[in-house]
Design brief:
The protein is of the alpha+beta class. The chain has 5 helices and 6 strands. A hairpin with a 5-residue loop joins β5 and β6. The mean pLDDT is 90.
């Protein structure tokens, strides 16, 4: 099964319980997707959830390059390192990702970590420095334009794979 399809199926299972909360209950599915995609990058990247505050607050995930781990992707990260490949800020799929991307929180993370992947599970925006050196949206991948469309996609995750 395609990693995106697997992620969407997991999101649906959590949603269907009726017991999850809007943002954090779904972190495991997103972490799995990020790590599956990250393992195919050069260098590989590992998503670490719930980062400690290193001066800009607590992003939802850090994206660490393989060299930041003592023995590769399966060991503990070296102490004191910021995630080399940026951080991830996640909101509910009800939130608009471009609004979040323009927030003071994402600006603070961008200043401190360099890049921020902002997601509401249905839409992904990479915020980083543009040619003028300003923080701005650089790339976007939208799976569904609205919450209703996303819920439809969760019912048929194979369409996304």
């Amino acid at each position: 099964m395609h990693p995106l399809e697997t992620c969407l199926a997991a999101l649906r299972q959590i949603h269907d319980t009726g017991g999850g909360v809007a943002e954090t209950s779904y972190y495991g599915a997103l972490e799995s997707l990020l790590n599956q995609v990250g393992s195919n990058l050069d260098p590989p990247v590992r998503a670490v959830p719930q980062l400690r505050d290193t001066g800009a607050g607590n992003p939802d995930f850090g994206l660490f390059a393989a060299g930041q781990f003592e023995a590769g992707l399966e060991s503990e990260s070296l102490p004191g390192h910021k995630p080399e490949r940026g951080v991830v800020e996640v909101k509910s799929w009800r939130d608009e990702v471009l609004t979040v991307a323009a927030s003071e929180q994402v600006n603070r993370y961008g200043q401190h970590y360099g890049m921020v992947l902002v997601s509401n599970y249905r839409d992904f925006v990479l915020v980083g420095r543009n040619a003028a050196g300003q923080l701005a949206p650089l790339e976007r991948l939208q799976l569904a334009a609205s919450e209703a469309e996303f819920l439809d996609l969760l019912r048929q995750p194979r369409q996304a794979g």
